[in-house]
Structure prediction request, 308 residues.
Amino acid sequence: MRVWITADVHHGNPGSKGVTRELAGHFLSNAERDDVLVLAGDIGEIDGIGLRECLGEFARFPGVKALVPGNHDLWTHPGSGQGTWHHYRAVLPRIAAEHGFQMLDVAPLRVALPHGGALGIAGSYGGYDFTMADVGALASDADRSEVLQAFRVGRFRTFVWSDYTFFWDRDGAFDLADFSRSCTAKLEQDVRGLQDDPAITAIAIITHTGGHIDVVRDHPLGLDKPLVANVWFHGVAGTVRIGEIAMESDKVRLVACGHTHHDREVLDEAGRCWINVGCNYSRKRWVAWDPAGGVQVSRWFGDAAAMW
Ligand SMILES: [Fe+2]
Ligand SMILES: [Fe+2]
Prediction:
């Protein structure tokens, strides 16, 4: 029994479609009926472009299918629809269900293991609340105030972070950190429910954003260097809350994410595997986790050398 995970297929991006198709074809010829597929966010693009089509690419997966949304899946143009909360709570779960996918943010999965016991799979968009950023490490008050201001408005030196535009609320300004805290509170509740369930013998947590600094640091393009950029990049890469939730449960064996578009894998002292799938706009791969046998990763599909 394996849990197949991929992330950041960005199927609404025209350059990604052929690569996703190749990746999906590989899943379909290797997966078995008791396997589980989880798409860990950034499946499509703004306003659901490519989302349904992408879920359709995985329709013939023989086992249970699940997903968590990424920030790009949560993007809608301001004024279209009813805002991000509604999109998250009502629209995305409905689209997932229509295509035979369980949105893990709504409810976790319980899957029987072949040699007894059961695997719980909890998941969430996760989001970010800037807690992964070590603002205190910055050398000057000017640097600190620059980064804190960037977190408030989403503008940082050479680029604008689009989440600040495409996450929105009809009733006023959107609070990205508050949204993340809501996501992780639900994740905590779900992981606790699995932890307290005697039938559950192992837990996987799958989020879009990261929960461990070692799976989001050292981007090969230097996105997290120099230090000021580092603090900014880490701030929007995830939240320490995901990591705390994972470490509060002794049944958690795997914590997987995407979002930063660079691959990382860490084994902690308790033997938990933390993995960042690392797909980007041009290259994709899958991760297959066997609760009894560890993690296997595929080759890159698409342009293996592409860094973004
Ligand atoms: Fe992405
Ligand atoms: Fe993302």
About this structure: The pocket of fe (ii) ion (ligand 1) is lined by residues 8, 10, 42, 70, 259, 261 (CB under 6 Å). The chain has a mean pLDDT of 95. Residues 3-302 form a domain with the Purple Acid Phosphatase; chain A, domain 2 fold (CATH 3.60.21.10).
